[in-house]
Amino acid sequence: MSAVVGVVGAGIMGRGIVQLFAQAGHEVRLFDADADAVVAAVGFVGSMIERQMAKGTLSAADGAAVTARVRPCSALEDLAGCAVVIEAIVERIDAKQALFRELEPRVGADCILASNTSSLLISAIASACEMPERVAGLHFFNPVPLMKIAEVIPGVLTDPAVTARLVDLVERAGHRAVTAADQPGFLINHAGRALYTEGLRLVEEGVTDFVGVDRIVREAMGFRMGPFELLDLTGLDVSGAVMQSIYEQFQHDPRYRPSPLVPPRLGAGLLGRKTGRGFYAYSDGERVEPAEAPAPDAAGTIWLGDGVGQEVRALLGDAVVDGPEDPSQPALLLALWGEDVSGAAVRLGLDPARCVAIDPLTDFARRRTLMYSPATRPEVVAVGHALLARDGRKVSVIADSAGFAAQRILAMIVNTGCEIAQRGIAAPADIDDAVRIGLGYPAGPLTLGDRIGATRILAILESLQRISGDPRYRPSQWLRRRALLGMPLTAS
Ligand SMILES: NC(=O)c1ccc[n+]([C@@H]2O[C@H](COP(=O)([O-])OP(=O)(O)OC[C@H]3O[C@@H](n4cnc5c(N)ncnc54)[C@H](O)[C@@H]3O)[C@@H](O)[C@H]2O)c1
């Protein structure tokens, strides 16, 4: 017989958790301090089941059985007999501690008490209990039935058998369970910091604007969404608070530093979709995509530096000037890793007024990134842009930045994943699966790093750290050691 699951809190998360476990064959008992919320949640789960029956993905008999397994409760006493009780109530430690204190004498000694908290320490919630060893985090994502991942978080005193039982419960329900230490942001919210903070950082430095960052992340890097679309979706109030909280909890480690661009936008009420305007404007719930300037109508020839790929050469065709660099030619196109145009031009002894650079990291078939220095002449940028857009592909034109936009964002994502591994917060396979499933990235951070090569990621970060002087870019020891030893980042 399958375990009886209790859920306390019938809001957005509670109702999703109820649906997940009822569909997985468990009897699920639901309690909320607000009796109307229970009624609404049971109705919601019923409507989700009906939708599946209408689509033909669930038979009428199975659908009826699922709804019959959901038991509304009017008192905490009704949760006696549960094998596990999952709380998804208000995000306040005093409320969660009080609930667990009340629950403990009402449930059996082997009942697990699990918290769906996003940001509170499990060990601190557990400290209110007679038996802290039975308390763990069980962190789902919204919408619970569709986001097929949950973090199982043992507190400092949690019995390993409790962790194992929760992993088993989640996996039997068809979700991937990853185990994460009781550390700020656990695994997924920790891993997600890099994309947001580096995206904001690029805008702060005037490299490009927020639409520019999103286009590069989405089209040139192959991510489903850019950081600013994501911030608009979650709401800047929620995401801004998470950014601040994780930074505070990591004792102001500059890797997690939030951006001064956020508070004025919060002050102005530009929270995102829910207020109709965030980084983007919304019309009838649809994002209004700002128009992108077309490629200029410019012609000219171009000299290619070392490392410019064959596909670039093939595209530029007869515009390429071969042989030694000739001062009579206007444009010099460089391919750079972890460097800006200014630094590269000086290092190579080239005229910076004639230099632009292309990012060799990104998907050339989708979108190209062209970067210029403060000294580059506008007509050189125009020729570079026009030539790279010859086949109709889009070109992002950005100001000088060591590592362009994509290399910086990718290196930070990989470094953060490496740091999660180095701190023992989670195992490599769990880190990659959690980020892929929970954040929807094309691959996990360690796999992304291995695709480019640990040595190259390390070189980008070392260059960024040297050029910017910012300890934010210091490489994780996980990355450094594996790069030095020629080992994959996914190796533990
Ligand atoms: N919303 C998300 O995307 C999300 C994602 C992951 C985790 N979480 C976490 O899940 C928890 C719930 O979030 P939510 O978005 O579902 O909240 P919600 O506001 O939608 O629902 C909370 C419910 O808990 C009830 N409640 C509050 N205090 C209670 C108490 N003491 N006893 C019983 N019931 C009580 C409320 O009446 C309400 O129905 C929070 O800890 C939150 O941080 C939320």
Notes on the protein architecture:
The chain has 492 residues and is α/β, with parallel strands linked by helices. It folds into three domains: 5-182, NAD(P)-binding Rossmann-like Domain (Rossmann fold, 3-Layer(aba) Sandwich), CATH 3.40.50.720; 189-288, N-(1-d-carboxylethyl)-l-norvaline Dehydrogenase, domain 2; 302-391, no CATH class. 43% of the residues lie in helices and 13% in strands. The chain contains 20 helices and 16 strands. The strands form three sheets. An eight-stranded mixed sheet has the order 3-2-1-4-5-6-7-8, sandwiched between helices. The protein has a six-stranded mixed sheet with strand order 12-11-13-14-15-16, with helices on both faces. Helix 5 (122-126) links the parallel strand 5 (112-115) and strand 6 (135-139). Helix 1 packs across helix 2 (35-55), helix 2 runs antiparallel to helix 3 and helix 16 packs across helix 18. The chain is elongated and about 85 Å long. The mean pLDDT is 97. It binds nicotinamide-adenine-dinucleotide. Nicotinamide-adenine-dinucleotide (NAD) binds at residues 8-14, 32-34, 37, 88-91, 95, 99, 116-118, 141-142.
